[in-house]
Design goal:
It is a multi-pass membrane protein. By secondary structure, the chain is mainly alpha-helical. 79% of the residues lie in helices and 0% in strands. It is globular, with a radius of gyration of 22 Å.
């Protein structure tokens, strides 16, 4: 990897800019959906696939992409994914009909998975020293934590100033610049080689399983299709685990899951992100459906969260982790975020943004800015150079699974509570606000559970020699 601080800084900037572009794409389109529906004639159920096609492909291919990076070279996989994502963004902007847009969004998900899965692995390889690595992970974590909120702002601004096509065209200059600069500043790595082959059966099982899991989660209601998709996903993922135990060159070496830091961090990530991303979805609905914000106003309303995430993840998180410990900072950040969600359980039908939403966004951004860099660092701390790609892909996969679960569960819970109140002749805005309050309570519960999980699962085990020394105590 590049040896000078200047080269490493330039490489980090390129990697994080590309990563931010991919993260933005998950949310930047959300505020443009009404305009897309009117222009291309999407049905109401079909419109959801403008988002879902991207998420299903992205989540399903992350683990495979990370392992490909370990075998074929992480820079090569990154550049391939970036090229696919940029070309698919152009195709999405030019889409003449609904079907072609959905296909282009699926291709964006493929490219996004290839590019994103190896970024964290490249960063930890570039920064072997603990201090610089913590700061670099803080920068990367900012792109992951704040990207969705920034996407809402950018999507609202682009749709308001131009039209929905520009939510895709905006990726082109970033993608082309990153493709031009990455070969100059990100040093090539050889990978461990494909001579022993890749576990094709394992790749098919995990890709199909995660895609079906995402598909089943995003489908509305407990229909036969939903249950069938989730059941098939369970079978495929169970088959994947069995395959990894026997494969000569496993896609996901199961020894990684026996590492306490890796397993604990991934479990914590699922629960944490379920609370975080579900909160974003519910808050966007509250701002629009209850407080009457338009698309641009909704995006701008989220700004306090990414600002505070930047303050903590870019400037304070690594210092706090050095002073205390990554685990302590993670737990503290999660508890601060849970307090933010508890504040949001006070939202009302006649509420105000600065009274009920703004303080919680500031608190939530502060907690997320502490928690996410600490968790990313813990997840990668035990990964060796040969496994950094698949470990990076694994933590990004669990992040996506958590986001899908959280959005589906919290949206369904809010809708169910609202529907229950509407059946009793409760005014619509009051029923909506009550549904959102219920969802915020669930978010607070999820994040509190993540804090407990992190406190227990990420507690370092003391080695037998250390235990014996502690039992004997000081002598003399």
């Amino acid at each position: 990897m590049p040896e000078t601080a200047r080269h490493r800084g330039a490489a980090l900037a390129v990697l994080c800019a590309a990563s931010l572009m991919v993260v933005l794409d998950g949310s930047i389109v959300a505020v443009a959906l009404p305009a897309i529906q009117a222009d291309l004639g999407f049905s109401a159920p079909g419109l959801a696939w403008v988002v879902n096609a991207y998420l299903v492909a992205f989540g399903g291919l992350l683990l495979l992409s990370g392992r490909l990076g370990d075998l074929a070279g992480r820079r090569r996989v990154f550049l391939t994914g970036l090229a696919v994502f940029t070309a698919a963004s152009l195709a999405a902007g030019l889409a003449p009909n609904a079907a072609s847009l959905v296909v282009a969004r699926f291709a964006q998900g493929v490219g996004g998975a290839l590019a994103s899965a190896v970024v964290l692995g490249l960063i930890v390889t570039m920064y072997p020293e603990p201090g610089p690595r913590a700061r670099a992970i803080g920068v990367y974590s900012f792109t992951q934590a704040a990207g969705a909120s920034i996407g809402l702002v950018a999507g609202g601004a682009l749709t308001h100033a131009f039209d929905w096509h520009w939510t895709f065209y905006v990726n082109l200059p970033i993608g082309v610049a990153a493709l031009a600069l990455a070969p100059l500043v990100v040093e090539a790595d050889r990978g461990t080689g494909l001579r022993d082959g890749i576990d094709v059966l394992g790749a098919l099982l995990v890709t199909g399983g995660v895609m079906l899991l995402g598909y089943g989660i995003v489908l509305p209601g407990w229909t036969f299709t939903t249950v069938g998709a989730l059941a098939a996903a369970t079978v495929l993922l169970a088959g994947f685990v069995l395959r990894q135990a026997r494969a000569r060159t496993p896609l996901l070496p199961l020894r990684l899951l026996r590492i306490r830091a890796v397993a604990g961090a991934n479990l914590t990530m699922v629960v944490m992100v379920a609370g975080f991303l579900g909160f974003q979805f519910v808050t966007a609905l509250y701002l629009q459906q209850v407080l009457g914000f338009d698309a641009l106003g909704t995006g701008l309303a989220f700004l306090p969260a990414p600002v505070m995430i930047a303050v903590f993840s870019l400037g304070l998180s690594d210092r706090l982790s050095t002073r205390f410990s990554p685990r302590a900072v993670l737990v503290a950040g999660l508890l601060v975020t849970a307090m933010a969600f508890l504040l949001l359980t006070r939202v009302r039908a006649d509420g105000g943004y600065f009274l009920h939403v703004f303080p919680a966004l500031v608190l939530m951004g502060s907690g997320a800015g502490m928690a996410i860099p600490a968790l990313m660092g813990l997840a990668m701390s035990a990964a060796g150079p040969a496994d950094s790609g698949v470990t990076s892909g694994l933590i990004t996969t669990t992040q996506q699974v958590g986001a899908a679960i959280g959005t589906a569960v919290l949206a369904s819970a809010a809708a169910a509570r609202t529907g229950e109140l509407l059946s009793t002749a409760t005014p619509a805005r009051e029923a909506l606000a009550a549904g959102f309050r219920f969802a915020y309570g669930l978010s607070a519960g999820l994040v509190t559970f993540a804090a407990v999980l992190a406190g227990v699962a990420l507690t370092p085990r003391r080695r037998p020699a250390e235990l014996r020394t502690a039992d004997v105590g000081p002598t003399g």
